[in-house]
Design brief:
Blueprint (H helix, E strand, L loop, with lengths): L16 H15 L10 E6 L5 H9 L14 E8 L4 E7 L6 H8 L11 H11 L13 E8 L5 E5 L13 H15 L4 E8 L8 H9 L6 E6 L9 H10 L10 E3 L12 H13 L3 H4 L7 H41 L6 H24 L13 H6 L1 H19 L4 E3 L14 E3 H14 L12 H10 L3 H27 L2 H31 L12 H26 L23 H8 L8 H38 L8 H6 L2 H8 L3 H39 L1
Parallel strand pairs: 1-5, 1-6, 2-4, 6-7, 7-8, 9-10
Antiparallel strand pairs: 2-5, 3-4
Helix pairs in contact: 1-23, 10-23, 11-16, 11-22, 13-16, 14-20, 15-20, 16-17, 16-20, 17-20, 17-22, 18-20
């Protein structure tokens, strides 16, 4: 019966020519070495030591794996099963990435001592010897044994058998070996395109088998895990243990969306039986026990497991194909970009100069759009990432200048002068708050100490400048801080552009001999321009020809008159005088019976202001505030136009222009672009990678031609 918790796979037909081609193409990709760079869809067989993994592989393939000392589980084994008229086995070794070049070459040239299926144990032992495995010096290896097995009864299937997980070492395997095996198994399980075949033994307590815990940690929703229960014949019929594993097989305990499968493998007494005898004994066992009534027949026995695994693998390939093509294409483009950055071999000064000229051309062609804000090139990537944003220098500058303008408006003044201050109000983030009356007292005191020959009620013209310079004291620190941010942003963009334009060693030389020497004058000119822009706002005499100043000054005076008249109106139009309260809803309209002469006399009193110093202080403060607004707009625009644009951004693409390369002598050219051993090795590795990726793309194009027909066949 079907399990309600089990995920329904796409109904994909098996063993059609199209599907055989699909599986063959994926195996071709794997043999080309693409797995080093891009994960491929695959079935990985993992479990604890002695869980019966080798017996599962034997049941699926018919191969008799060597059982002495569990030698076959000392390394990962790729088992490729294919249908063909005659049986044959081919064994190769894929060297691990920790192998030296000489050792890897030797392992890649491994020749199998036999191609007979009956001598498979002899073949495996020879491979183990080639890997240098023994019980004393080396127990496990990161090399991969690739076994291609064909025959008339083989399913179309590929599996990767991994060493069994164990917790503690003994005489034949150490604690370090345990950590190595676990790390190897987890690395395969974490590959998102891998289907996990989690093998558990009914002989052992389920809670003691770590593979189910690992599977749930790495694949928490069970989307790509299929469980296999082995050794059910070792459970007593009707026992609690048998009921526990039946419940597990029904997907009611540990839930995997791909479900569970149960196998009965050979035991010690039946180890010499044939494949046919083994399969017949398995059928007989399930028919006589609770398994056949509790589970669907499709979840029992190896005859049902083979097509089930083929279906799972095929469905995974079809699902992952678009992402696989995308990943390979991305890796291919990245590899080409890196090779372009490295350039061709450059042994002579002419080759080195030519490389630098090409690097300069790439640099200018990327930095100029970064400055101009045209982010069309693939180099700029996504703006959602920190790196992609840093490459967009114009965007960084625009945002930084916006922040600068806001900070100057909110924090540029030394004091915030207010007419009234509610009790308890504080301004923790901004400038200190001061009442206008208190500020006017300070201005009056300052005017007394700076009094010249001006008449009473007038103020020394220098007072406006003194008040303004005090109020604008935060400006230099804000402007210089912003300038430093913009220079840092420019350096970050240049660094990223150079990463794309040159290899690491040459990049260091370009930075040392070209970029830094040319950036220093740019920074010096920018800093000098900043000082020039700040100078009239720090000392000297205020100067402006902008009518905005007089407009602001008049507005300030009008505000004072308006406040004074409003106060007198409120005093005059109170109820005792026969008027109405201005706070009422009718807006404080004058009622009949109010004398216009009395109102005029109230608004324009005959008496004059006796405190001439206060009058002068008010006028000086108004002039300072009006000038401050004009100067604020001026410095924000001037800093952006003359310091940022003219001195920094316009100069950046020129710091590594081709003319500079032409002017360098041969000795400097060699210091910069002379090729290091690391660059030579990197180019060789990239060329190998490029060949693999290009072959992979050709193969994937073939795969695309079969995808449509495969899907059509599957839905038929």
């Amino acid at each position: 019966m079907a399990d309600a918790n089990e995920f329904r796979l796409p109904q994909v037909g098996l063993q059609t020519p199209e599907h055989e081609e699909l599986l063959n193409i994926i195996d071709t990709l794997r043999s080309q070495g693409i797995s080093r760079y891009v994960d491929l869809p695959q079935l990985i067989v993992c479990g604890d030591q002695s869980s019966g993994k080798s017996s599962v592989l034997e049941a699926i393939s018919g191969l008799r794996f060597p059982t002495k000392d569990n030698l076959c589980t000392r390394f990962a084994t790729e088992l490729i099963l294919r249908r063909s008229p005659s049986p044959n086995v081919t064994v190769t070794i894929i060297p691990g990435q920790d192998r030296s070049e000489a050792s890897a070459k030797t392992l890649s040239a491994f020749k199998s001592p036999s191609t007979s299926i009956d001598e498979f144990a002899k073949i495996v032992n020879a491979a183990e010897k080639a890997m240098g495995l023994d019980i004393v010096t080396k127990v496990f290896s990161k090399d991969i044994l690739r076994v291609e097995l064909s025959g008339p009864n083989q399913p179309h299937l590929t599996l990767v058998d991994l060493p069994g997980i164990f917790w503690a070492g003994d005489q034949s395997q150490s604690d370090d070996d345990a950590a190595l095996v676990r790390s190897l198994v987890e690395s395969y399980m974490k590959k998102a395109r891998s289907i996990i075949l989690a093998v558990v033994s009914a002989k052992s307590d389920l809670a003691m088998q770590v593979i189910t815990k690992l599977a749930r940690e790495i694949d928490p929703h069970g989307d790509r895990t299929l469980g296999v229960i082995t050794k059910p014949d070792l459970l007593f019929a009707g026992s609690d243990s048998e009921n526990t594993f039946v419940k597990l097989a029904k997907n009611e305990n540990i839930v995997f969306k791909l479900g569970w499968h149960v196998l009965k493998n050979r035991d010690y007494d039946t180890r010499e039986t044939t494949r046919e005898q083994r399969d017949a004994a398995e059928k007989k066992f399930f028919q006589g026990r609770v398994w056949s009534s509790a589970l669907s027949q499709t979840h029992l026995g190896v005859e049902n497991l083979r097509p089930r695994l083929s279906r799972v693998l095929l469905a995974q390939i079809l699902v992952e194909l678009p992402g696989l093509v995308r990943d390979v294409d991305n890796e291919l483009q990245s590899c080409k970009d890196r090779l372009n950055a490295l350039g061709g071999p450059r042994r002579t000064s002419s080759e080195q100069r030519l490389y630098l000229l090409r690097t300069s051309h790439t640099f200018v062609n990327l930095l100029k759009p970064a400055v101009d804000g045209t982010y069309v090139d693939a180099f700029f990537g996504s703006p959602d990432t920190a790196e992609g944003y840093s490459k967009r220098l114009r965007a960084v500058v625009q945002f930084t200048m916006k922040e600068f303008a806001e900070k100057m408006s909110l924090e540029g003044h030394a004091l915030q002068i207010v007419d009234s201050k509610p009790a308890g109000q504080t301004n923790k983030d901004g400038p200190p708050v001061m009442l206008r009356d208190n500020y006017l007292e300070q201005v009056t005191l300052q005017m007394r100490r700076n009094h010249g020959r001006e008449l009473p009620g007038l103020f020394n013209p220098s007072m406006v400048g003194d008040l303004f310079f005090d109020q604008a004291k935060p400006w230099p620190s804000i402007v210089k801080e912003t300038a430093e941010k913009l220079v840092a942003a420019a350096r970050a963009t240049i660094n990223l552009v150079l990463d794309r334009s040159a290899d690491t060693v040459t990049k260091d030389g370009i930075m040392r001999y070209i970029i830094r020497p040319n950036m220093e004058p740019i920074c010096d000119r920018m800093n000098a321009k900043v000082e020039e822009i700040l100078k009239p706002h720090i000392r000297g005499h205020p100067l402006t020809f902008n009518h905005y100043f007089t407009e602001n000054l008049q507005k300030k005076r009008q505000e004072e008159v308006r406040k004074s008249m409003a106060l007198k109106m409120r005093q005059f139009l109170t109820v005792p005088f026969g008027g109405v309260d201005p706070s009422t809803s009718n807006g404080g309209y004058i009622t009949q019976g109010v004398s216009a002469d009395r109102l005029l006399k109230a608004l324009v009193p005959d008496e004059s202001e006796p405190d001439m110093e206060k009058f002068a202080s008010i006028e000086a403060t108004h002039a300072m505030e009006a000038y401050y607004k004009v100067a604020l707009k001026s410095i924000i625009d001037s800093f952006g136009m003359y310091a940022v644009e003219a001195c920094l951004l316009e100069e950046l693409p020129e710091i590594f222009r081709p003319e500079i390369v032409f002017e360098l002598d041969d000795e400097t050219i060699t210091k910069i672009a002379g090729e290091s051993a690391e660059s030579i090795m990197e180019r060789e590795d990239l060329q190998k990678k490029l060949k693999i990726l290009e072959d992979t793309m050709l193969t994937l194009r073939r795969l695309k031609t079969f995808t449509g027909s495969a899907e059509t066949s599957g839905s038929a």
